[in-house]
Design a protein that fits this description.
Elements: E1 3-7, H1 13-26, H2 33-46, E2 50-56, E3 59-71, E4 76-86, H3 95-110, E5 115-116, H4 126-131
Parallel strand pairs: 4-5
Antiparallel strand pairs: 1-2, 2-3, 3-4
Helix pairs in contact: 1-2
Amino acid sequence: MSIFTRLAARSDLPVLTTMLDAYRVFYAQPSDPEAAKTFLEARFSQRDSEIFLGEMDGKPAGFVQLYPTFSTVSLKRMYVLNDLYVLPSYRGQGVGAALLIKAQERCLEKGYKGLALETAVDNPARALYEKLGWEKDIHCFHYFWAAP
């Protein structure tokens, strides 16, 4: 089985829409393929994220979405790895690792400071992140303000 990762194109919108909707459902959001499609169309139009598609034996298997941002303290650009999703039938076969490695390579290509991500404390992918050199932040608290 061969895994291939590549920068997604607008022509990948149908398969990305299906996967983004499944990703959202995984995180207990209601299925809404039309909203997923609209969201992805905006990302392509506004060019405010980079999406990489993972394929196994020529079939779509997962995606990773990176959002460029800045670190004021280091005065450098960085990515927020906001989304990583592998279709259930492809999990445990290296697709997630290939997508994470592609994200790391992209970061190096651009000369960025690094990649940040947050994940649920019970997410089994944590072991994969740590295996690939990601470090759990134990020095900071993360806060979120939700608009009413």
